[in-house]
Description:
Elements lengths: L1 H19 L3 H21 L3 H37 L4 H61 L9
Helix pairs in contact: 1-2, 2-4, 3-4
Amino acid sequence: MKKNILGLIILLIFLxxxxxxxxxxxxxxxxxxxxxxxxxxxxxxLPEENxxxxxxxxxxxxKNRETHFDNQKSITQKLRKALEKPKDxxxxxxxxxxxxxxxxxxxxKEKKLYLELQKHIGHEKFAKYLLFQMxxxxxxxxxxxxxxxxxxxxxxxx
Length: 158
């Protein structure tokens, strides 16, 4: 029960900040990243001595993903443009190779970081981390949907 109330309070703060933020899309992304990190730390429940090693590793994993997605986005945009123009098979083939190479580089770095992370947090917490990675997006969407369905009378009076 306390976890639900705490989650609801955090979500309310999150949504309020999103609504009244100046640059809404940038703020939303930052807030979601912060909320995600808080939820991840709560899920992993790391001892303080591990945090100093694990947090930088988690940041590296996140940075690797961001770089990968940015690269993929850039290459895919080039590929779309190459397909719209008169077809240049060499350019299309080069972009496909670049896209696949980027994916391979990402997977190698991800595997290396995952093995290092698993070494520091153990199998059980690493399994929790993997599950968190897979389900966080869905959970945040569900919480936001729940907030949209709430009526003013659902909130306690002061």
